[in-house]
Amino acid sequence: MTFEAKVKTQTDRPRGEGTSAPGHSAGWLLQHLEYLLVPVVLGLGLFVWDRLVVWQGYPPFILPAPAVVFRKFLLTLQDGTLVRHGLVTLLEVLLGLALGLSLAFVLGYWLGKHRGAERLLSPYIVASQSVPIVAIAPLLVIWFGSGLLSKVLVCGLITFFPTLVSTMVGIRNVDRDLYDLMRSLRASRWQIFRLLELPAALPIIFGGLKLSVILAVVGAVVGEFSGADVGLGFLINLARGVLDTPLMFVAVIALILLAQLLYLGVSLLESYCLRWQRAA
Description:
This protein is an all-alpha fold. It has a domain at about 105-160 and about 205-275. About 85% of the residues lie in helices and about 0% in strands. It is built from 13 helices and no strands. α5 packs parallel to α8 (about 150-170), α5 packs across α11 (about 230-240) and α8 (about 150-170) runs antiparallel to α10. The protein is globular and about 75 Å long.
């Protein structure tokens, strides 16, 4: 076989053919390295935490050992305390997200299409966001009571601005030539929104959504700190009052898991809605 024939044989070979199994396994490990490192990092962190408690001899009300926290987690899970408070916080977060994101998307789309309105309203929007949420939450509790409504409003306020900005930026980044193309095809306003503006803006909008779901958990806790009789934030306040540090750790870990699950849900939704990008 001539040299040219050998080269043609190698280039015509289907991609991946002839790849050894060890090489394929190494490539898979490198591709999913971030997932494989999670249990390693968690295990190392728990080991360092446990050794620190043993080395310094901390009492449980200062720094409980991981085993103590785990036993407290099982106890609160069995008696329903963690589930009851966690579900209330989850409900506050979801309702707050529904309120804040819907208003932010509608207003962000309108401001993205009308620059004059954006210049007129942006100083007031920025001013409203410059006030710390911890200062607004007590006022909302006073005005609307310590029930569900005040927590939903806090979550809605804290999630509003990131989605508003990302929606405005996403709408304004749509290619003007594509607008001309859609108009030349006699597309309606709804068709332009559904087939052009929304798909083009979604990658940027999802960036704001990912930040908003994390902030929603923070907003729920801030609202519960200001006044509540149920919720994970209330559970932290209760544990702090009786120096039950293991219970505080359980509530904080539950909040972290809740935020991670919400972030994962948005990431999966993003992967589904933007699957056309991978296909392209």
